[in-house]
Amino acid sequence: MGNPIGIMVDSLRLGLRDGLKKAKELGADGVQIYAVSGEMDPANLSPQARKELKAYIESLGLNISALCGDLGGHGFQDKSVNADKIEKSKRILDLAVELGTKVVTTHIGVVPEQANGPIYETMLHACEELGVYASSLGAYFAVETGPETAAHLKSFLDAMSTKGVSVNFDPANMVMVTGDDPVQGVITLKDYIVHTHVKDGIRLRQADPREVYGSLGYQPMSHELIAEAATSGPYYRELALGEGHVDFGRYFQALRDIGYTGYLTIEREVGEKPEVDIANAIAFIKRYQ
Fold first, then answer.
1. Do 65 and 195 form a contact (C-beta atoms < 8 A)?
2. Which regions span the lipid bilayer (predicted)?
3. Is 167 in contact with 145 (CB distance < 8 Å)?
4. Which tens digit of pLDDT belongs to each residue from 249-263?
5. Smallest Cα–Cα separation from 143: which of 115, 176, 113, 110?
6. How far apart, in whole angstroms, are the C-alpha atoms of residue 40 and residue 48?
7. Which of 148, 176, 179, 195 could in theory staple to 152 by disulfide, Cβ–Cβ 3.0 to 4.6 A?
8. Rounded distance, CA 247 to CA 171, Å?
């Protein structure tokens, strides 16, 4: 595959600047960066700081594949907090465009099976507003796969007036949580995929996605809890590339077949040696190029 390779900087666990340098050393073409809190919170980045960060990333010969704007909690299911979450998501979209990327990835909460129920309508309303805003910037608010099947996610996306809400395709999440087939998922969601994660894993037993990704009435989602569950929980394991149940030969072929030319961004949420795992992941992907 000729797709550029990205690294989720936070997966290296080195801090922003050191992580950016290490990503370049490892041979990445680009990086994805969390932009929710701390120094990357849009509220903490002055116009000058944004220019300096963009220039620094460019000086390393890197691009930004996407920002991660995942606000956790119950996604956009809770109408009482959505106004603040929508406003912050818009500011993350603004930051993304200023830094030279068109993609912000996120989790929106589990889309209920029952269309037109109150939670479904609340999520749809929030995503419609964000999709329209993203489109006005020439950008995408990309929902990460995993909490629901590809077919159900497509039906939710089809209900909007814009493709400003699109898809960050993560094949491992599908394998680990819903048991959905990533290859068929690529075909189903082909009109929406604007970014991908490269990750692997196995499913140990059936899980309720609401317990993993957060839903009203369930524990709020956090990446710390997801990493803990992926290491020692009862339902799934995140594994190094090639050690899980993602059929990468067929998966990469499916991406070729739909004409996807965007980033293959490595995310590693577990493991004692992330730098080694990510270096091995780059070598693994290059075997298909």
1. yes
2. none
3. yes
4. 999 999 999 999 999
5. 110
6. 13
7. 148
8. 9
**Paired tokens of 162:** 């814009």
Cα–Cα distance between 234 and 222 in angstroms, integer? 17
- Structure-token pair, residue 275: 């730098």
Long-range contacts of 6-9 (CB under 8 A, 24+ apart): 6/30, 6/31, 6/32, 6/65, 6/66, 6/263, 6/264, 6/265, 6/266, 7/31, 7/32, 7/265, 7/266, 7/278, 8/32, 8/68, 8/197, 8/265, 8/266, 8/267, 8/268, 9/33, 9/34
Q: What integer pLDDT is reported at residue 30 of this predicted model?
A: 98
Residue by residue, what is the 3-state secondary structure of 12-54? Answer: HCCCHHHHHHHHHHHCCCEEEEECCCHHHCHHHCCHHHHHHHH
pLDDT digits (tens, 9 = 90+) for 158-183: 999 999 999 999 999 999 999 999 99
